[in-house]
Write a structure and sequence with these properties.
two-stranded antiparallel sheet; 18 strands; globular; disordered N terminus
Length: 540
């Protein structure tokens, strides 16, 4: 087995192969990887060399040829590697860009899953503070993003190649650097979901906590706590940290940039290459974002204001309402009495745990009710497919309205992927052909089957489907609002939220224990789903 395919006990930072020796610590990341390589007979990496090491494809890293290096046009290759420069620390990397007068506009962001836990409350708790740093030309979106901890124990870069129109991904493994693939590698069967592509699932940059309140990030919504004598206070980068609300805009722009380049490459000539690669981002959850209420859990009291649960918990509002423009009448997500939330924390044993430090504290995450929601990068593919007239809006809506009350991890909607072709297809007819195949299959299946649900949606006249879908969504949200204003209804939603969180915890995108709460809900509890009448039942 390749060193690149080994999964550490706890994934760190961006879930790239990091070989940490001790869960909960970055210390020894480079050493652990090189030790593994030596044990495999590959030896240590040599100083002054760029290696190629794509997880799932390369058994071990190998030196890149001069021709391969010449084919890389991103800032890391141009400023450093082609010039024989090998920055080993975060400071050396940033200073090198500045000295080369390349991408002078710098923005610094900071994240820590333990950041809202007072340092004096848990002095042994790993803080896991990381910087995310972007470099850009003035007035432009960034072309280089750096992820590192303050001590440069790990150092990883995503750099945009303006010639190939891809992000190239690099990681430092002292005393060298490794090219771990590019955006296309994320989509190739051999490397998909492996190495850095277990988080950069579709080839773009990632910010899991994309929306307000930007969970775990330093932002206008929350400040990461430091001890008065924390040496990080003297770090020049710390003094440059700005709010993650700015990073959200950056990440959205970069996801859009890669999606635009990708669609031009695979569907720009009237033929869709690998239709399944595109439509899996409509039919399935290739990845997710994390969202929450904007309310700090510690401020919720039994007699307080109603708690508005995130709209992404109820349905994929970003796709159906914002992108496809369904004019629903409900303006805010359903809300529940605060006492039901407060009571649920005790009833279900909510707590935060970090095993390496034996940290445990009763209660929820800093922001209440963190749950996975449909990923922006999935929705952006669908939005652009519709905008470019590659997918009819009705087709996208008909798919999304199958099991729409379960916006993530829907096995029902995912079953329709078997009707999506894998061979090249005409952009003029591919969606109609898929729809025809599904509708034909539905004739021999129950009406509530995935095929039956899609067929019913597809049968709606062009002049009526929007109004029908709006009525269904409005009726559902009205029922959901009434349901969570009962104790039993809110408890069911708590169980459903935990069911979805556990599906997220099974993903390699789950990197830090403190991202989500732990509960006393039994581990063998069946997976749950939301029904259109706002009841919660087991997945069958």
């Amino acid at each position: 087995m390749s060193v690149w395919d080994r999964t550490p006990d706890r994934r760190r930072a961006t879930a790239w192969a990091a070989g940490v020796g001790t869960p909960g610590s970055y210390v020894g990341a480079d050493e652990a990887i090189t030790a593994d390589m030596a044990a495999d007979g590959g030896g240590r990496l040599q100083e002054g060399q760029l290696y190629r090491g794509v997880s799932g494809v390369d058994q071990d890293p190998r030196p890149m040829s001069a021709e391969e290096l010449a084919g890389l046009e991103d800032p890391m290759a141009v400023v450093f590697f082609r010039q024989g420069k090998w920055p080993m620390t975060l400071e050396e990397l940033l200073d090198g860009l500045t000295e080369a007068n390349t991408l002078p506009a710098q923005a610094v962001y900071m994240i820590s899953e333990a950041g809202q836990i007072a340092p004096d409350e848990a002095p042994e708790l790993p803080r896991d503070i990381r910087f995310a740093i972007t470099r850009a030309s003035p007035g432009k979106d960034p072309d280089l993003l750096v992820s590192s901890d303050p001590a440069s124990a790990f150092l990883q870069v995503a750099a945009w190649d303006p010639t190939a129109h891809v992000f190239n991904y690099y990681m430092r493994i002292s005393p060298a650097w490794v090219w771990t693939g590019n955006s296309w590698s994320a989509l190739e069967p051999g490397s998909r979901g492996k190495g850095c592509f277990d988080s950069h699932v579709n080839g773009s940059v990632v910010m899991k906590e994309l929306k307000q309140p930007w969970i775990n990030w330093q932002s206008m919504a929350a400040t990461i706590q430091l001890a008065p004598d924390d040496p990080l206070r003297d770090n020049p980068l710390y003094r440059q940290v700005i709010g993650a609300e700015r990073l959200e805009l950056t990440v959205r722009g970069l996801v859009t940039r890669w999606t635009t380049a990708r669609l031009e490459a695979v569907a720009g000539d009237g033929t869709v290459q690998h239709p399944d690669h595109l439509l899996r981002q409509l039919f399935t959850s290739t990845t997710v974002n994390l969202t929450s209420t904007p309310t700090q859990s510690a401020t919720v009291t039994r007699d307080g204001k109603n708690l508005v649960l995130p709209m992404g918990f109820w349905l994929n509002a970003d796709a159906l309402i914002n992108d496809l423009g369904l004019p629903v009448s409900v303006e805010t997500a359903p809300s529940a009495p605060a006492l039901f939330y407060a009571d649920s924390l005790a009833a279900f044993g909510f707590r935060l745990e970090e095993r390496t430090s034996n940290f445990s504290r009763q209660g929820d995450t800093f922001f209440a009710f963190v749950v996975p929601e449909a990923a922006y990068e999935d929705n952006e593919v669908v939005r652009q497919l519709v905008e470019k007239s590659l997918v009819p809006a009705k087709f996208a809506a008909c798919v999304l309205m199958v099991d729409f009350t379960n916006p993530v991890f829907s096995p029902i909607r995912a079953q329709l992927m078997k009707y999506v072709p894998t061979a090249p297809a005409s952009t003029a007819t591919w969606c109609d052909e898929i729809a025809t195949t599904v509708v034909a299959a539905a004739t021999t299946l129950p009406t509530d089957s995935p095929e039956g649900q899609f067929a019913e949606n597809w049968s709606l006249p062009e002049t009526e489907w929007r109004a029908v879908f709006v009525r269904r969504i409005d009726d559902y949200l009205e029922k959901a609002t009434a349901r969570i204003r009962t104790a039993s209804g809110f408890d069911d939603c708590t169980r459903l939220a935990e069911s979805r969180r556990r599906e997220f915890k099974a993903m390699r995108l789950n990197e830090f224990e403190l991202s989500l709460p732990t509960t006393d809900i039994p581990a063998d509890t069946p997976r749950l789903r939301m029904n259109e009448d706002a009841t919660v039942t087991a997945v069958t």
